[in-house]
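Follow-up to my post from last week.
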Amino acid sequence: MRLRLSAVILAAVLGIGPAAAQFGNPGGADPATVERAPGIPAPSQTNVQDRLFASLAAQGGTAEVELARLATQKSRNEAVTAFASQMIEDHGKSNGRLMQLAKQMGVPLPSDPAADQKALQQELSALDQGRFETAYMRAQIVDHQKTVQLLLWVIASGESADMQRFATETLPTVLHHLQLAQNLVQQLTGAVAP
Amino acid sequence: MSVYMKTALASAVALTSSFVVFADPLPPDVTYRPLPTLPFSRVKAADEAQKAAVMQRQSALLNARYDLSNTAVPGVMMSGGRKAVQQGVRVKLPAGTSWEALAAMSPDEVRQKGLLPAGFLPLPHVKHATGGQVFPDRQIDEIRRQEGRDLRRFDVNFDLPDHVTAEFPPPIFLTTRPELGDVSRGQLLTIKNYYEVMNGIVTPVQMEGLRLLLTPFPQEEFNQTEDRKVAEQSTGVTCLDCHANFHTNAAFHLTPDVRPQAARFRLDSVSLRGLFNQQIHGSKRSLRSVEDFTEFEQRTAYFNGDHVSATRKGAHLPDRTNQVAMMAQMQNIIDFPPAPKLDSQGKLDPSKATRQELAGEEIFLGKGRCAGCHTPQLSFMDNMMHDLKLERFYQIGNTFNDLVALPDGPIKTFTLRGIKDSPPYMHDGRLLTLADTVEFFNLVLGVKLNQQEKDALIAYLLTL
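User reply:
Got it. Predicted complex:
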């Protein structure tokens, strides 16, 4: 909680946020872009990377919440259930913001998780409690690594300033989740966390 | 079998037992450079329209982080006598703190309170989403004058003030003819004048190497395709367009060794002086010979580590046995500038050094812990990469001008010989003066130097 608060303070102090503009490479802009001023896209203009990011992030976020719900039911490890509850809360919030953004931009979002995410859900639900906890946490590391990469990607490759703002604000939290997951896996298995 | 082992095995079995569902890889352009989606003329128009605001945004960041004033150390010039060395700490402190207070805090405390000076954070490229090589004005002007080749980008300009960069053109000192001193004749070496300047001084293989180092080849932003940032189709850039006169002109780009784009740190051009003693090359890549580096730069510095894009635009693939060898021959004879106060083992001659300089050397070798990586007998390097773990002091994941501040990881130790000649400092040029670097390492190494010790250290560094 403290970490997140200091992130917000830091962001305010260093001028990240609406005041700081985004300048993407126009070579990657959408040909249908409407310009607010020469070289500056109007609000809610998106390119392929923005739309693909929104789609992948929405799927990932939904899967994340479903998996975390499973974890709160199956796990008897307090740290794991606490982690899962935080995932439900944090990803629930960012899913909501993303849906709002996507609606503004007219980007349709998938309603189902991807096939591999569904398969993971099935496999994990078949495990008994002890194995589930370790498998869930290890899967969470991979999941958050991928999410970090996608966020970094849209920050530089997207066209929409709103999408970039969403990504820059979400990234520190996701990195924090990754850290929590690494620490938990360390507790459960002895693997070393960075 | 331990509990851990059993759990690990069980997880592995459980996850691979039934049917295999492959997850999608991340989108391809997280790693690979995408082709442009718009025609060149529209991209150029948009870039030009954005340029003023792009420069303004970077200027605002620089001014928030640093004192950019032109304040020279009295009586200290760079080795060619053409530019003064800048003095003083330029990194701005957060309100309500001091260097002593910061040094007294633990890294955790600095991080949690957000007190690491912003000037110590990774420095963004001027237009980070695009990246690519950016040349300073003096290089652009001189190349246009001598060769008629255009190094001006229509989307960005160089961002640092001239007085915090190296002198131009830099002097050239040769290991093969030390008695001649600076052989540059005050000129920037280009394909037009190198033969006149160097014939008689270098050998035939060195001359051919020099020719190749001065020959333009296609590069990501300077090429003949529509994916370029120069107005007209370009023959490209040369090695010495950044490594001017085998030194540096502070031209920068982004590391070719990291993806995605927002995670790539900025890279200041290094000086090529003293390469002969360097055993690893590249900030992250640890190439083991200058031949390897020379051969591969056509895919890395030139094309961001994307050999696919390089192939489309026309990478130069120099022949290893002849061309690369000769380019290495020339690079390996470039000496450090003379350091009259240093003996053959990199130690100060007490009969020539001032008391303050000797005191600085003592700190360098002792309390300051500088020599732990910057070993005097090894040309102030250790041929190693080290991780300073600056992320102990700042929260990772915040975005500044489209660069996300992440841990830098291990980076090669740079030489300190001739160091006063090559500001700005660190792999990305985030430290503008030697005083800044002393404050930086004082914090990072936790050595708690007092002001007198810091001043002595700076005096010593100016003798190298």
